[in-house]
Each structure stands twice: as structure tokens, then as C-alpha cells.
Amino acid sequence: MKAKLLASVLLGCIASLSAADRGAQEGDPEIGQALFQAKMCNLCHTLAGESGPMANLGGSLDAVGQRRDAAWLRVYFTDPKAVIPTATMPPAELSATELRDMIAYLLSLR
Ligand code: HEC
What we know:
Layout lengths: L1 H25 L2 H10 L7 E2 L2 E2 L3 H4 L5 H4 L2 H9 L1 H4 L12 H12 L3
Antiparallel strand pairs: 1-2
Helix pairs in contact: 2-7, 5-7
Keywords: Heme, Iron, Metal-binding, Signal
Protein name: Cytochrome C
Organism: Thiocapsa imhoffii
């Protein structure tokens, strides 16, 4: 009886751990939105009517989630020229977790 209880407690822990893990995999769009400000992405982009001083360089990111997918964004942020040979955007300085959050945010823009 005791062993059964212990087993179900352990299983519960494992289930919640993997749920947390999945959350991290998918990224948090709200954190991504904050990062967009913090990393000054808006400097060269327009988003939701707000244009940075050099927005003519990067253009609008409205609905970017319809144009690009996670795989493309992942490569682009790490090595822009790998997907756009003429790219002028610098590689984004984002940790692995920040990258996931940023991608989750951008994909939510539709
Ligand atoms: C120095 C200016 C500059 C900064 C800062 C900048 N970008 Fe860009 N971005 C560009 C340019 C220019 C392009 C157009 C493609 C190219 O030349 O690389 C672009 C393209 C993009 C694209 C592809 C858009 C599309 O429609 O395909 C995404 C997504 C993007 N930027 C996101 C970001 C994010 C997120 C940040 C902050 C981490 C950021 N940018 C910071 C200049 C910038």
C-alpha cells in the first residue's frame, strides 16, 4: 500500500517535470515580447505601429508568424546569412532559452 502511494507520488512528479520541460521547449511568448524590447530589436523594425529610428532597415514584423516558421527563425537568428545570403541584420545575442521565447513571441504575431 505504501509502495503504491510512493509510486503514484513519483509518477506525479515526473509528469509535472516533463510538463515544465515541454513549456521551456515551446518558449514563453510574453518573455519573448519583453526581450524584443530589452534587446532593442525595435531599433530596426516596426511592430504594432511602433517604429524604431532605423525601422526602414528591417521593416515591419507584423504578421511575421505567417511568413516564417520556428526552424527558419532559429537559423536566421544564429546565422542570418545562412537563410538570406544578403542579410544585414546582426546575429541576435540570445541564450538558448531566450531564443525559444523570442521565437514563440514572433510566431504569435499573425
Ligand atoms: C541593426 C538593425 C537590426 C536590428 C537591431 C534587428 N534587426 Fe531584424 N532585420 C534587420 C534587417 C535589415 C532585416 C532584413 C533581412 C536582413 O537583411 O537580414 C531583418 C529581418 C528580421 C526578421 C525577418 C523578417 C521577415 O519578414 O522575414 C526577423 C524575424 C527579425 N529581423 C527579427 C529581429 C529581432 C527579434 C531582433 C532583436 C533580437 C532584430 N530583428 C534586430 C535589421 C535589424
